[in-house]
Amino acid sequence: MELTGRLAVITGAGSGIGRALAESFAAEGARVVAADLDGESAEQTAAAIRSGGGQSLGIRADAGVTADIEALTTTDFGPVDIYVANAGIIGSPGLGTDEQWDSILDINLRSHVRAAQVLVPQWLSRGGGYFVSVASAAGLLSQIGAAGYAVTKHAAVGFAEWLAITYGDDGVGVSCVCPLGVATPLLDAVRASEDPDSAAGAASIVQSGEVLSAQDVATATVGAVKADRFLVLPHPQVLDMYRHKGSDYDRWIAGMRRYQRSLRAGR
Fold first, then answer.
1. CA-CA distance, 88 to 131, in Å (whole number)?
2. Is 194 helix (H, G, I), strand (E, B) or coil?
């Protein structure tokens, strides 16, 4: 896909991976709608893009609310070509409560579904569009310490697969981004937690591979969109981990249990 002149909407664009994605798409010549629940941060991202000569709007939006998604697709910039479902939360440690599950499902999964419900009909009528799901390596492997995060990231990967299978022949491209540790405010919050499950989860993230910059992830993502490539692995070793998991599921689960015990003992 040629990005020059395209309109890209990025959720969670106020910081971290979202901000890096917004800046990277703009650097490729795309017009960018930077959306975030923190409207001031969204505008800061947009202002940085404009100061570099790009075109960008900063909009406060809740990525899990259909009305806000619709507002992002009806700006003066025109119809959306690329939608990047990046907004996400780590959620609560352990099993969580019903309310906590509702919250993480809304942001990490239903926001993707609702965006597709709004955009796919438009893209089918126009002959194409592109959906980027920013998931996690936790969606291919798992996440020690946080059930909600592990489950919703698996679901996000599954939904991205379904979109690619169902609408790929109709001109809808899909990329699914699955990094390990990335230096973002989300990772900082997990590492600062005193909860033992969160501490074990943070240790597993940091120990699993190099903690990349948000820009590293954005660069890999933009490259995948241009190449129309589904699976985006900023940490290439995730593919070997995934193959190992699939080759012997019981052995993999036993290994993850051992690893969790070692993390808890270290704590």
1. 16
2. coil
Domain total of the chain: 1
* CA dihedral over 69, 62, 158, 218, signed as positive or negative: positive
Residue 2 lies in a domain: no
Cα(176)–Cα(131) distance, integer angstroms: 9
Residue 223 within any structural domain of the chain: yes
Q: Is the pTM of this model over 0.85?
A: yes
Q: Which of 141, 25, 4 is nearest to 83 (CA)?
A: 25
What CATH number corresponds to the domain at position 27? 3.40.50.720
pLDDT along the chain (267 residues), means of 10: 94 96 97 97 97 96 95 93 95 89 96 98 96 96 90 98 98 96 72 64 68 93 97 95 95 92 77
Host H or E run for residue 32: strand 31-36
| Per annotation, catalytic residue among 149, 242, 249, 259 | 149
Active site residue 167: no
CB 133 within 8 A of CB 176: yes
Contact indicator for 45, 58 with CB cutoff of 8 Å? yes
| Residues found in the chain | 267
Burial of 182 (0-12, 13-18, 19+ CB in 10 A): buried
pLDDT at 197: 66
Range of the domain at 139: 7-266
Dihedral, 104, 244, 234, 135 alpha carbons, nearest 10: -20
